[in-house]
Amino acid sequence: MSFGSVKGGYKYAQGATFLEAEDQQAALNALAALTWEATIHPDVRFIAEKITRDCASRNDRCELTAVFNAVRYGDPEIPPLKNGVKYMNDPRLADYFESPVDRIRMCAKGACATDCDGHAALICALLGSIGWACGLRAWGPAGSKHYTHVYAVALFPKTGVEVYDRNGNMIGREFKEAIALDTTVPSFRVGSEARRGNVLNAYFDVGVGADDGKKRFWPADRRRRI
C-alpha cells in the first residue's frame, strides 16, 4: 500500500477508474467501504461458510485460523482458493483497489494474485460475512508520515461485550483485542504484526472497538504510534 502522491492528496485506482483521496486515512476508509459492501455478497458468504466448515459453532479462534490459512495456503475444497492467494505488486501508475468479489472472480478464472491491501480486503470481507467486526490497518516505519503496508485486523471475541450508557441504552460493543491477520509476510501467523512503526486503522463496525487495549468509538481511532 504505497500510494502515489498527487497534488492535494493521494491517487489510487478502483478498477479502471482513477480516484483521489485527501490523505492516506481517506484512502484507507475508501478501501474499507469497498470491502464492507462485499460482506453481504452471497459468493463471499458461501466461501466463508465453506472455509469454516470444520469449525465448531462459536469457535472464534478456529474461524480466524481457517480464513487465514485458506487465503495464505489455499483450500482444495474451494476452487477459487485451492492454491491460496499469491502476493503481487500493484501497477506502477497508482495503488490499485479491488472489490473482494472481483478478486474471488479472478481467482476462479485462475488469476489469483494481489498485493497486501487486496489480501487484507479479502480476509475482512470473508470474516465480515460471517459476523466478525473487522478492519484494515495501514503500517509505516517509525518517524515516517507515509504508510507502506496494509493488513486485516479482527476484533476479538467475535460478538464482543455489549456496552450501555447511564440510561441503559446500548451504545456498542467492547472487544478484548484486535488480532492481526497478515497473509503477505512469509514468517507471520495469526496475530503476527510489526511491533514498531505508525499505524492507521479503519474498522467497519460502529460502536466500541479495541486497539491494543484502548477503547475507542468509531471513527475516532485514527493515527497512532506503536
Overall SS class: alpha+beta
Report the principal-axis shape: globular
- What is the percent of helical residues? 25-40%
End-to-end Cα distance, whole Å, is: 19 Å
Describe it for me?
The protein has 226 residues and is an alpha+beta fold. Helices cover 27% and strands 29% of the residues. The chain has five helices and 15 strands. It has helices at 24-38, 42-51, 60-72, 100-108, 116-129; strands at residues 4-6, 9-14, 17-21, 86-87, 95-97, 113-114, 134-140, 149-156, 161-164, 170-174, 177-181, 198-203, 208-211, 214-217, 224-225. The strands form five sheets. It has a five-stranded antiparallel sheet, covered by helices on one side. Strand 13 (208-211) and strand 14 form a beta hairpin. Helix 3 (60-72) packs antiparallel against helix 5 and helix 4 packs across helix 5. The radius of gyration is 17 Å and the shape is globular. It starts with a strand and ends with a strand. The relative contact order is 0.16. The model is unreliable at 3-10 and 206-226 (pLDDT under 50).
Features:
four-stranded mixed beta sheet, globular, alpha+beta, 5 helices, disordered C terminus, 226 residues, five-stranded antiparallel beta sheet, disordered N terminus
